[in-house]
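Need the bound structure for S-adenosylmethionine, inputs here:
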Amino acid sequence: MLANMVTFYNPAKVLLYLKELKEKIPVFMEIDPSYLCNHACLWCRYHHPNGVLPLDYMVALLDKYPQVRGVRITGGGEPLINPATPQFILECSQRGIKTGIETNGGLLRKDSIEIIGNNCQYCRISLDAATIETHRRLHGSKGDFERILDNVRALRETKLAELGISYLVVDENVDEITHLAELNLPVSYIHFKPIIQGVNRQTQKKALKAIKALEQQVSYPLIYGRLVQDHFHRPGLKCRVTALFTRAAADGKEYVCCEHVGEEAFLRENWDGSTERCASCRYAPYNEVLEIYYTNTLSHEFL
Ligand SMILES: C[S@@+](CC[C@H](N)C(=O)[O-])C[C@H]1O[C@@H](n2cnc3c(N)ncnc32)[C@H](O)[C@@H]1O
Ligand code: SF4
Ligand code: SF4
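Answer from helper R.:
Posting the output first, comments after.
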């Protein structure tokens, strides 16, 4: 109940799980059902060998971590290339586990839309363009932009609570940010993000100006905090949050977090807690909250 009242992305959420943190019990799982992808984005940070998780394996993870309350289905590659992904969503739902899915949207079909719409908390589509040409160029897709837009509209017809768009900002798509208004996207938000390889200052400046202009034209919120200040790991900051989750990758192994998928040293059973090789870290704000909580012991009970 309390967890529902804390907003998405609010790092203070970790304070709801202090008991689990102490006992190192995962309450959250990220899963890559597939390393394969139907797109080939210019920036994709995930270049992994073939790998698709069988349904039995994914379900067994739920048995292994009975305290998991939320599952983020992502990649790796494209989660919907794995035909078992919708069934896995149903399995989570039947167990009362909340799910969210991140997808490029090209493989959504009537049945998967229905299952996602009826059982997921959120669905986030990585669109990254406002025109078919730019989408084709950046996503290396064969022109499924219009179909993706149709899929977004179809998802809106379901009872899905949160339907988001993700837009990675690069030199090639910064000039069409304002054109997103023309698409009349029926979405809950658009999240503008930098690529981990970095966004140059000029592009960042252009993007912020365009986002401000877009804000005047659309009725949904635009999220762009990470364009201004991305999450970097602070040297010396202890990584505590990883006790609360696991990243099940499509190679059938579990890693401590999404930033280190494929690295032997960051397999859950191998990791020694070292953060020397951590640069970008989407979990840095959570670790900062925990650092404050555990080190500033005098003020726990006061505002
Ligand atoms: C790897 S994809 C997996 C799910 C699905 N294929 C998709 O694109 O939504 C998950 C997210 O990672 C993001 N991503 C991929 N490469 C990235 C990079 N180099 N920098 C920042 N984000 C990246 C994508 O934009 C996407 O929103
Ligand atoms: S759609 Fe997702 S997984 Fe596929 S290439 Fe693009 S970012 Fe990578
Ligand atoms: S990137 Fe490093 S600091 Fe961040 S969650 Fe992963 S292991 Fe921890």
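Comments: The pocket of S-adenosylmethionine (ligand 1) is lined by residues 37, 43-46, 74-75, 78, 102-104, 126, 166, 168, 195-197 (CB under 6 Å). The radius of gyration is 19 Å.
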